[in-house]
Design goal:
The complex is a heterodimer of chains A (about 300) and B (about 140). Chain A has about 300 residues and is an alpha/beta fold. Chain A contains 11 helices and 5 strands; from the N terminus they run H-H-H-H-H-H-E-E-H-E-H-E-H-E-H-H. The chains are: A alpha/beta (about 300), B alpha/beta (about 140).
Chain lengths: ~300, ~140
């Protein structure tokens, strides 16, 4: 070890000693004043109109848990329990519309309430107050940071899960008759989704031995050049596998757009709506739907 | 020119089977120029000998069909047609179809069908009715 390093090590050791001596005192103070400080804190939360989606009872019970966890982190330095709790809390409150801003503000409020109480206790000895704050602040900031990060991470996880679910849900390939598949597309078609959709459709054509596919795009809000071209590719690829494709649900606006931007749709078989599409498909497959009454007559 | 013919015992890359009035050619591995010439020659011979009305080319074993391969198939279709037989390409795999459209490769104006069974059905349809044919591309 170089002399400089050992000096530094000694300094940090000293700071550590001071830290080790003061922390238990700090923790004891926060434990003794638990009721009072918690009340002050929840008062400030409701005063700032945070967490308006939750009832006062709920706020009180969550505040108690956070407070106890907070003091525990200060005492043990281990953030595991708090992190676990923060993640769990995020999971519970995200569906209720609690914003990141609220969570951050609440933790900062607690930090401020506790800091004030420390000021009050040590205001006669400025040096000691300084040391107490030295011990308190890094830990408090670390906690605030960690709670906010867990909240954001949890939110991002929820968003990712939902995106995945939407992607899975929105591209069903349904068989409605032997050798006839329907592909209702709902939502925005981007390049990745168009690609996934084509792959899924081609696999389904082979699995169901489909001869006709009806793609309904009533639920697609906007069709641009890229989407139109990927539809053309889907049609071509299906034909290579021996299945004809009928496109239904092209709105008049979309039809106009396509003509304006000059996408070549001459190879596409399009009809007005899904019903006509299915009727056309049945005709191609040699089916004819007849009312029972008409057959009996 | 190498001047050496491929040996007769070389692994069979294409098999041509007769089924009634139809010929079924299965391509087992990717063909190069030389093999293709031999294949085309054999096929045209057989169409004449067996008076075939239709040809099915099964490409199910191919995991890629590039512009060269598709041109070969188109040429074959045209030659077969001059000899009086319609050609249907069957067995294009989903991945192959997807890659083909991505690279803008097509088989126009050949017929395609899902598999052998479908291909035979399509040839029956082509032979029986001249009027209402499934759209060809």
């Amino acid at each position: 070890m170089t002399p400089k390093e050992s000096d530094e090590a000694q300094e940090t050791d000293e700071a550590q000693d001071e830290h080790d001596r003061l922390l238990p005192e700090l923790v004891a103070h926060l434990r003794d004043n638990r009721e009072h400080l918690r009340e002050q804190w929840t008062g400030r939360i409701t005063g700032a109109r945070l967490l308006s989606a939750m009832t006062p009872d709920e706020i009180f019970s969550e505040a108690t848990s956070i407070y106890d966890n907070y003091v525990e982190v200060l005492e043990t330095g281990s953030t595991d329990a708090l992190q676990h709790y923060a993640r769990d809390l995020s999971e519970r409150i995200i569906p209720r519309g609690v914003e990141t801003e609220d969570v951050l503000n609440i933790v900062l409020l607690l930090r401020d309430v506790l800091a004030r109480s420390l000021f009050e206790k040590y205001h006669e000895d400025f040096d000691l107050l300084n040391h107490v704050l030295d011990a308190y602040e890094p830990a408090a900031n670390r906690i605030a940071n960690m709670v906010a990060v867990s909240f954001v991470q949890e939110r991002e996880r929820v968003i990712r899960d939902q995106q995945e679910a939407i992607r899975e849900l929105s591209t069903p390939v349904l068989q409605v008759r032997e050798r006839l598949l329907i592909l209702p597309i709902i939502g925005i078609l981007d390049a990745a989704r168009a690609r996934q959709l084509t792959e899924q459709l081609l696999k389904a054509i082979r699995a169901h031995r489909a001869k006709v596919v009806v793609i309904d795009i009533t639920g697609v809000p906007d069709v641009d050049e890229g989407v139109a071209n990927s539809l053309v590719q889907t049609v071509d690829a299906s034909k290579l596998m021996g299945a004809s494709v009928i496109i239904t649900g092209l709105s008049s606006e979309i039809a106009e757009t396509l003509v304006t931007i000059g996408v070549d749709l001459s190879k596409m078989d399009t009809v007005g709506d899904l019903q006509e599409g299915i009727e056309e498909a049945e005709r191609l497959l040699g089916y004819q739907a007849v009312r029972i009454d008409d057959v009996r007559r | 020119m190498s001047g050496v013919d491929p040996p007769e015992q070389a692994p069979l890359r294409v098999s041509i089977l007769a089924q009634g009035a139809y010929l079924i050619a299965s391509i087992h591995t990717a063909l190069d120029d030389e093999h293709f010439e031999r294949f085309q020659h054999d096929l045209i011979d057989q169409i004449g000998q067996r008076r075939a009305r239709g040809v099915i080319i099964d490409v199910a074993a191919l995991d890629v069909l590039d512009s060269f391969g598709s041109r070969i198939l188109r040429d074959l279709g045209q030659v077969a047609r001059l000899r009086g037989a319609e050609t249907v390409v069957v067995g294009i795999q989903p991945e192959v179809a997807f890659a083909m459209v991505k690279f803008g490769i097509n088989l126009d104006p050949m017929y395609t069908a899902l598999d052998l069974e479908e291909g035979l059905g399509l040839l029956d349809q082509l032979g029986s009715s001249g009027a209402e044919l499934p759209s060809r591309h």
